[in-house]
Amino acid sequence: MSHDVVRRVVAEALGTALLVCAVVGSGIAAQRLSPDDVGLQLLQNSIATGAALVALILAFQPVSASFNPVVTAVEAVLGRLPVSVAAVMVAAQLAGGLLGAVVANVMFELDPVSISTHARGGSGQLVGEVVATLGLVLVVFGALRSPRVDTVAFAVGGWITAAYWFTSSTSFANPAVTVARTLSDTFAGIAPGSAPAFVLMQVVGGALALGVLRLLHPRPATTQET
């Protein structure tokens, strides 16, 4: 494995771990600070997650800042990454996400692993995951074609913060984060039985976004656009 690939893998693992820490940790804090107001809990959780995403993407983007297996898979299909590198990055994202959930639990003096009992599902929420992931992928790769690549961080943070509210699923939109959230029986958790359907819908959303991207941007991105 080349030094460049190692750097990418470390960046993806650490970035995803910190992202999950933000998602789960802010959910726990919100639950404790506003125990009787679910709407306020969601507001606190969404603001913290969106802000963390902006900061993490800005910090890790010079190396690698996908933090999401769907985004990485689309990069590979579009020819921006070798498939072998993408596979290692996805493994790093999954491992980092699990570590992030454990660390978040420990920070708040909970058991390192507490399997979530928060069942999520139904046709509405599954459609919400398709919409959330479709929009996320379009935002990422559309912003990458902007003359200012640093807009990606703000575009992604803004999309996720908004999608927490306008999608019925509260916008998981990330298989690594979804799997990690099964390890925390808190506000941000998802029951293991609910996770596979969410992940499947995220893959569907990513595939639909790929089709839209090829329609909107038929030519490969130039060096300046990446």
Automatic annotation (TrEMBL):
Transmembrane segments: 9-30, 42-60, 81-106, 126-144, 151-167, 187-213
SUPFAM superfamilies in the record: Aquaporin-like
UniProt keyword Transmembrane helix present: yes
GO molecular function, one term: channel activity
GO-annotated cellular components: membrane
Top-level taxon of origin: Bacteria
Protein name per its UniProtKB record: Aquaporin family protein
Pfam families named among the record's database cross-references: MIP (PF00230)
Family: Belongs to the MIP/aquaporin (TC 1.A.8) family.
Topology with respect to the bilayer: Multi-pass membrane protein
Principal location class: membrane
